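Deliverable D5.2: sample structural annotation.
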Amino acid sequence: QIDDTVNVMRQNIQRTEQRGSKLDDMEDQTHRMGIAASQFKRGANRVHKDLKWKNVRMWALIILGIAVVLAIIIGL
């Protein structure tokens, strides 16, 4: 009966060690995911800023084009 108890205790210790290594792996993975999320956020902000200025330039060109057309029509 003592041998059975010792075996159960050894199995419990092994399981605890395995759980500990799994937790370490999860902690590393969480850290990597945090870094990746930060990089993604910076990239998304950069793309958002670039598209915003592209949109501003497009509207400026449209307004300039309308102004030129109106100037030509009024000038005639």
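Annotation notes: The chain has a mean pLDDT of 93. The first helix runs from residue 2 to 75.
The annotation will be released with the project's public dataset once the embargo ends.
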